[in-house]
Design a protein that fits this description.
It is a single chain. This protein has 2 helices and no strands. By secondary structure, the protein is mainly alpha-helical. The protein has one domain. Helices cover 92% and strands 0% of the residues. It is rod-shaped and about 110 Å long.
């Protein structure tokens, strides 16, 4: 007795359908891999930019403090 699924596959040219389905799955897998790689690259870039941005902000604060400190030193010198 022939299995229902085997008979259906044989009658409808199921081998071709299975091949197409396999190709579609592979294409989907490749697309997901590409997307993951791109997200990793972009995600890493964003994290680096955030870190660099934080460093820049700290440097700007230090620069402001130095400038303010420098002004205070100048005022002290003028008073003398």
């Amino acid at each position: 007795m022939e299995d229902y699924y085997e008979r259906r596959r044989r009658e409808e040219g199921g081998e071709e359908r299975e091949e197409r389905r396999g190709r579609k799955q592979e294409e989907g897998n490749e697309e997901r891999r590409r997307r993951r790689r791109r997200n990793r690259r972009e995600g890493g870039r964003e994290e680096r930019e955030e870190k660099e941005g934080g460093k820049r902000k700290e440097e700007e604060k230090r620069g402001r403090k130095n400038e303010e400190g420098g002004e205070k030193e100048e005022e002290k010198e003028e008073e003398k």
